[in-house]
Amino acid sequence: MTIKSPLDHTIGNLTLNSFTEFRVPPYWGYFLDTTLTPTGQFPPINLNLVPLYGASVSSLKFLVKDASISPRQITYNKETRPFLRDIPPSYTISINNRLFFFTRTTTLLYRANIFNICTTKKYRFPIVFDASTKDLSYLVLTPAQTPIFASRVVTIIDDNPPTLDSLEIMVLNQTHSVVRLGASDDVSGVFMIDINNLLSETPVTKYHLVSGTKLNGVYEIIVPWKKSWPAQIQVYDYAGLSKFYANEQLNLMFDLDLQQSKSYHIGDITSLYLSKNQVDVTLSGVDVVLYANLSQTQQQRDLYSSIALTVALTKSTTLVLGVYNERSQLYEFPFKVPAKTLPAQVRYFLTINMQPFSVESDLLIGKFGAQARLNVINTGVIDTTFPIVTKVDQVPGQDQPLVWDLEFYDVSGVKKVIIGISSEYDFKGKNITLDGGGQTTFRYNLTYELDPSTCRAMNYWISYVYTEDLLGNIGESVRYSNIDFHPFYKFDDSTFDIISVGSSYCSLNIAEISSPVIKSLAYTRTTNSSIQNEQVQIFFKVTDDTKISLDHLPVCFFTDSNNDLVSSVARIVNNGNSGAIVDYICDFIFPFAYGPRALLSIYGLSDIYFNYIGFPSNDLRTLTFNPVYSIPDTSSLVVIESTSSLETSSDVLYIYGRGFKIGSTIVTIQADLEKFIEVPTITTGSVLVLNNLKPAIEYKIRVTEETSRESSLVVTLKGQLPTTPSPTPVTPTPTPTSPSCKTDCGASLGYGEYCSSTIANTTIEPNPHIPSVNLTLDGENGGTTNTKSKFSSLIQLISLKELENGGNDVVSKHVFNNNQWINVPSESNDPNVKTSKYKYIINNSLNTTIYSTVQVFPQAKSITFGKQQLQMNPSTVKFTFNITSYPFSKSTNTLQFIMAASILSSEQIGCSYQEFIQDDNNSQYLKIQIDQVSLFGRFIGYGIIDGREESITNSVVNQADEIATQQTSNSQQSYIGLNIRYFQQTALLDPDFSVLIETKSASDQDNSICSSARSSKKLSVAQIAGIVIGGVVFLFILCAVIVYVLSKKSSNPIALKLRRLAKN
């Protein structure tokens, strides 16, 4: 089989009606007006053709640019001929008033920094460099790039490059992750960390510093990929030294798998189709969804795989990150095909894990057939570009000398036009906004009014053009500074628009040529209660021999150590009577981390004769003013910089900001009238993630870092607007049902494992200092007898263990110290639920923190845990535990919390019993019973692990911390292990406890333990009624509480242990 080249094929006719040549440095651009035959089209080869607009596909206007060889066209006789003339050689370009300045990754843009007047402009601006910098390299970006190199003698020696000390990737959601990097440098400090994934570069600078300093700090940045990506990282310091780290090196240094051994290709894509295979965009845009799936494990999907879709539209590309739909088990990529797009087959690409190669749509169509093809139909006009200027003429003979006849064209209709007029001396000029009214051809006579008594004889021209059409296509042109196709392309190099105004009209006598002078300058630090940024006002007084132009407001600039610019247009506060003295103020609000020192420059001062001047920092120093301003450090602040929206869903809230600390950051939320505290499911130095917030119309949010007690300002967010429901028949409110057990109890059948128990009428008081509660049972089945037996109950968190591969081998262990619990303020607007909150900090590399919330429910109530509804029985104690990041030695290990539960009766005669069971819903229950009173604990079979619902296991442990289980007739003790898989951010658990009166006594249970006298004597109902239960504490964490101490002479080992705890 022979595959022929396109050069071998005869094609239909292509007629070039006309073309316009314009400069697109460093090449030439061409605007082509063509006519194509309806079929058999083959456009010229070796051209970067971009369709612009046309009445139909057969009469298109094209843009050709970036062509470095002579274009040619295939003819009928299979030959090629020149299509346009050869590309001209390079040339010298003029500069107007837009100039970019690059120093490494820093871009400075000046617009008002003219130093001299007339046709020559001198640009002077400060450049900040470190004392250890040896060589400087700059790039002045005008239409032609001008590199500048300089060397200097260093005053501080820095010979060692910076180092990358840590690297961690924390997955935020299905599309984005946080890359956390530690870097250090011994002398000049870290300037930048460049993250390269072979497709793009991501600079990390001081604005991403979350802890430490430039000498040794931790940085965070959000990236659109997960844990698998072809990483290359280069660290720079302020001396200009750098160190490079390749992918394999990073994996070995930090035990990562950045680029998995599995490289995805077309064979791994198991399914792919589009929601629409043909779309008509003649009148409007059309929404399309591409569905695809990969052959991968769940771990790869959750933690490693990221897929991006690139759709190659007419003038631009659309990038869509894939989101996995659990229901359909497919990745979804929604995008929109714009209205009036060129009819064609749409090309698209799938990029997996940021690999430097993509799977093209042609290959996918070959594998999956027509369902992978997207065809665009357009039977009307084609429009992918902005309105263009088609006519510029002078209009002589008018009352005003400056009148231009302008014409704009757009096939979809012109919506808006802005025209800027400048002159030889008035560099700033003035912008005039025009309403296009949706006209296809919009004509307008533009008049720039002059006052003969104040104007100056000089040339005027169009310096700026902005155009916008009804479809939203926007174009911008800056005279002599354009590097791409622009609205003024026909006239950028012409002189048609230059109008000379002579002295016969402008009668102003130029009295002097000196420029204004700054006479005084002062800094005043200001505050604003609505923001936390550092602020300053620059007060300066300007004088001139004649009058200062009030139409030309100066601009103040600050340049910091990274050569980053912030600017402020001055405002007039006093201009006196003569106009020769004007007082100005520049208001600055600094970005966080800006500074710590910055150089002031002031540009754009002018008098009424257009004598311009600017004062860079060195010139201010020459005038004896201090141009250096020290900006106070803001690193200790807790700041909310932005959030995600809650207007459509309250399932997840992302809070972006500064000052967040892992393990000690909480969020106070007021949802309408209810106020509560949330511990984020994910905490990084710059991002907080909260899941499953209560629906509300309005939220007020404040972030607090508990160690420093620093808090952010309150941020108000809109919630979901209430919807008016359809009228429905009124039905009685159902009575809450009891939790499911082996027999589904129903509302009135009882509680417990077999629905045979009743809720004891208890009084419950949380301990305000430690996570414990007192439960008191009065009288017989809730009666009021004065006779009471006493019970002491202890539920205590013993230790935390990391287990090798989920087995029994202990990798590390922490034994809890009850004296280290810290009370945390709790805010709750539910008066029927008593809430207390505590935290415990483990001294490890991540300062793992355990938050314990104790809630007492006197009445039945439904609550939400994760996405499931749980029923709280009357007289129930619920514990919520949020465990922050733990330093696992490896990801296959598990974490086991061991908790001891015990109960002791003051009655020496009796029976005790315990059991640990599992129901049909994979939840576990612990029952500790003495006679007819039991402590009933429910352990839900799932937790919220890193923001997702996942199953957990609970099991009985024979001994904990080398203490064996002990059981007697009047005491029971048990150890429960709660086992959690590897997690990165948080694990959330939610057990609860109730006190029950059992219909079946412990003596009637198999394997019960009874005293010797119990065989001939049973407890009376009156004795049971007097039982007092003290101190139901939690499962996870807890300290011991003694409600009542046993007889002082008791030698029972549990009693001795409780007595010792009471003394402490």
TrEMBL record:
Every DUF7034 domain range: 516-630
UniProt biased composition (Pro residues): 724-737
UniProt keyword tRNA processing present: no
Top-rank lineage group of the source organism: Eukaryota
Domain (DUF7743): residue spans on this chain: 156-270
Record key words, sorted: Membrane, Transmembrane, Transmembrane helix
Start and end residues of each stretch annotated as Disordered: 717-740
Residues annotated as transmembrane: 1024-1047
Residue ranges of domain ComC supersandwich in the record: 774-996
Record-linked PANTHER family: EGF-LIKE DOMAIN-CONTAINING PROTEIN-RELATED-RELATED, PTHR31378:SF17
Protein name: IPT/TIG domain-containing protein
Record organism: Polysphondylium violaceum
Organism taxonomic ancestry: Eukaryota, Amoebozoa, Evosea, Eumycetozoa, Dictyostelia
